[in-house]
Design goal:
This protein has about 450 residues and is of the alpha/beta class. The strands form three sheets. A nine-stranded mixed sheet has the order 11-10-9-8-7-6-12-13-14. The protein has a three-stranded antiparallel sheet with strand order 2-3-4. A two-stranded antiparallel ribbon has the order 1-5. Helix 10 runs parallel beside helix 14. It is globular, with a radius of gyration of 23 Å.
Length: about 450
Amino acid sequence: MKNIYRWSDFCLRVQVRGGILLKNGLTGAVVFIDAKNEKEINHFISNGDTGILSTRIDELAHPDTAILIPKNFDEYSDWRERLIYWRNNEAHIFILHFMPTIQCQLRCDYCVEKGANRGIGMKQEIINQSRRWVIDYLDSHHEIDSFRFVLFGGEPLLQRKVVEQALETFHKLASERNITFWTEIVTNGEFLNEETARLLSRHDWRRVQITLDGPEGVHDLRRHGENGRPTFQNIMRNIRMLLSTRYIPKVDIRISFDASNADRVPELIHHLAGLEVQDRINLSLGLITPTFASPSKTNTESIIAEKALMTWKVAKDCGFLIPEEFLTGPWCVAIAKHSAVLQPDGSLQKCFCTAGRKEYNFGSIFERSETPYLKDPRYEHFKRTDQCIKEKCQFLPLCGGGCIHNAMVEQGGSVGGKHRYCQKTLLDKMNHGLLALTYG
C-alpha cells in the first residue's frame, strides 16, 4: 500500500501507561493507541504497509477524527480558510451584548473597564432607537434565525428597569420575526435575587455567569464594594437561591485566577462542593490578563498553568466536570460577523473589554452603516495568524492568533488588530495537562 498518511500536526500527545493519548485540537477527537499499534502505524507511515487492519487506519483518518491526515495536506491553510468561510458564510446568530450601564458597585483593581468613562445609565431613547436599528439589521440579513441577548456591564442590574424593558422589547421583536430568542447575563451576582431570576426566566434564560475570587476572605479583599464593603455573603446567597430553584439549568461560576489568589482557590471549590449540586455548577477559571487599565504581565505562563492544573485536579476530585481543553480566542464574539456591544449612549463596539473607551467605537445605532455587516476593520485581520502558520504551531485551532484585545494592549494601545497575542507556553502546559487529567 502506498504511503499516503501522516500524523496531524494539530495532535496533542500524552504518554500514559501502555501507550499514548492523542487529541486533535481541531476536531476534538481523542484516541488511545497502545504501544504495539503506535509502532505499526509509524511503520505504515514510513513504509506504506502495516500489520493492523485497514479499518483502524480509516477510523484514525476520518475527517471527523483527523488523527492521521493525507501526507501532502496543508492543514494550516485549510484551518484559516475554514475559519473565514464559516465566519462569513455560515453565520446565522445575531449576538447583542447589551450594556444598560458601565457603572458598577464593586471596586475590583483588575477590572478591564477601570479608568474608562463610566458615563450614565441608558435612557429611553436608546432603547427605542436600538429597536429600530435591530429591525433594520434583521431586514438586511435574512439568514439570521437566532437572537442571543447578553446583559453585560459594568453591573447590568444597577439598571434593572432598563433591563426589564429591553427584555420585553427584544423578545417581542424576535417573536414577531419568528426567530429564536434567548437571554444570558454576566453579573457580579449581588443584585440577582429571586425577583430578578423570575424576570429573566420569562425570556428563555439560558446562561448566567457570576464571578468569585476565592473563599470569603480572599474574595472580599479583591471584589469589595466602596470603602471595602464585603460582598461574598450577598453573592453566595443568590447563588444558593439559583441552585435550589429551577429558574436556570446551571450556574456558571467564573473564578478570577492569578498568582496572588491561585493557592486559595481550592478552598472555594471545596466550599462549592459542600452545596452538593456539582451537576448544576459550571466552573471556569478566568485567567487575569493585561488590560488597558493594567497593561503589564504579572504572571508567568508556566507558573499559572501549573497552579491552574492543580486547581482542576481538586475540582475533578470534588466531583465537578472539568474542561477538556484550554482555548484563548479562536471563536471570540469580537470577530463574529453579526455581533456588537451596545453601550449606554448607543455607540457600538466589537469587544466588551474596550467598553467606555470611545476610540474603539466603530458605529452607532443612530447612524446608517456603510458596511455590509457589523464590521470593524480592526477585528478583520485574520492574517495575524501568518506567523503561527509559518511556525507550524500545533495550537492554532485552540488559539487562532490569540485575543485581539490583549494584542492591542501588548502593542501599547494600537488599534490595528494586526498582531497575534501568543501564549504558547500556557497553551502547551494547559492542554497537555488537561488531556492527561481528563483521560489519563
